[in-house]
């Protein structure tokens, strides 16, 4: 995997060592502008801001939440039963960087999907006016 030399140590830890940033600390948690979220490592488009929402699910509050990915080819979903939790790891389809986890069947969005993403795995490009 090619690593972007401009990444912070925290971004490297999350993207390449499957880390998790501390809840409530991410740069994009409270972002509300229209735009596109991209992979912080390779720049691939991942999530449209219109799919972002505020989670109300205990244990999942504190990270940016999305109802859907940009498309089925932008991410890779892999079962991940780490720590006894049934969840699905989300990685960037282009570079393999760890983004976060998908939880299904949640009640905080009509889709039932909760893409729980680390802010430091993302960059944000606001929509031009």
Summary of the model, kept short:
The chain is about 5% helix and about 35% strand.
Structure annotation, total helices: 1
What's the CATH class label?
A: Mainly Beta
**Terminus-to-terminus distance:** 35 Å
Structural class: mainly beta
Largest sheet: 6 strands, antiparallel
Number of domains: 1
Quick one: how many beta strands?
9
As residue ranges, the low-confidence spans are: none
CATH architecture, by name, is Beta Complex
Q: What fold name stands as the CATH topology? A: Metal Binding Protein, Guanine Nucleotide Exchange Factor, Chain A
* Shape designation: globular
Specify the helix fraction band: under 10%
Order of helices and strands: HEEEEEEEEE
Strand content: 25-35%
Report on this model:
- This protein is mainly β and 129 residues long.
- It has one domain (29-120): Peptide methionine sulfoxide reductase (Metal Binding Protein, Guanine Nucleotide Exchange Factor, Chain A, Beta Complex), CATH 2.170.150.
- Helix content is 7%, strand content 33%.
- It is built from 1 helix and 9 strands, in the order H-E-E-E-E-E-E-E-E-E.
- It has one helix at 9-17; strands at 35-39, 45-48, 52-53, 65-66, 75-80, 87-92, 98-104, 113-117, 122-126.
- It has a 6-stranded antiparallel sheet.
- A hairpin with an 8-residue loop joins strand 7 and strand 8.
- The protein is globular and about 40 Å long.
- The chain starts with 8 loop residues before the first helix and ends with a strand.
- The mean pLDDT is 91.
